[in-house]
Amino acid sequence: VLSQLRELENADDPNLLSRVLQLYLDESPKLIDKLKQAVLQNDAREIELSAHTLKSSSANIGATILTGLCGEIHLAIRALDVDRAGQIFSQVEIAFGHVQTALTTEISLLAANPEAITASASPGWKT
After folding, report:
1. What is the pLDDT of residues 74-124, one digit of tens each?
2. Angle (deg, nearest 10), helices 44-60 and 64-78
3. CA-CA distance, 54 to 60, in Å (whole number)?
4. For a FRET experiment, which of 14, 70, 78, 117 has its CA 20 to 30 Å from that of 109?
5. Is 123 left (phi over 0), alpha (psi -120 to 50) or beta?
6. In the predicted model, is pLDDT for residue 56 greater than 80?
7. What is the gyration radius of the CA atoms in the chain, in angstroms?
């Protein structure tokens, strides 16, 4: 996914990848917080909505493990298993931490060397 975003960069928009990653880093913690509050309140509707939104955002930047976990939460809610969704959320928090670290590193690499290999090729990126 990141390599596809890199291909969209051009002279008119040379920082597209960095901006997309930074936007994710700025907005996704809000989704994590909403999801956490929904889990604490056993609010199935908000759990489903927040997990779906986080899943889509994470898929857009190539965070496949986090995307999959959000999908599992969605399935748990569809099965009316709020407890299972809460259990999966703890894994989401861990995966999200890994994604934040990877994206922060990627943004730093891009700033230091715009021609750097994207994180999509880095070991462990699928976090």
Report:
1. 999 999 999 999 999 999 999 999 999 999 998 888 888 755 544 444 434
2. 160
3. 10
4. 70
5. beta
6. yes
7. 16
If we measure between CA atoms, which residue out of 125, 58, 5 comes closest to residue 72? 58
Residue for token pair 């909403």: 34
Q: What is the pLDDT of residue 11?
A: 52
**Block residue for tokens 């907005």:** 27
The stretch 37-41 carries a mean pLDDT of 96
Backbone angles phi, psi at 75, to 5 degrees: -65, -40
The C-alpha angle with vertex 32 and arms to 123 and 87, in degrees rounded to 5, equals 85
> Which are the contacts of 19, defined by CB distance < 8 A and separation ≥ 6?
none
Closest CA to 105 of 90, 92, 123, 89: 123
Mean pLDDT of the chain: 84
The phi, psi pair for 100, rounded to 5°, reads -55, -45
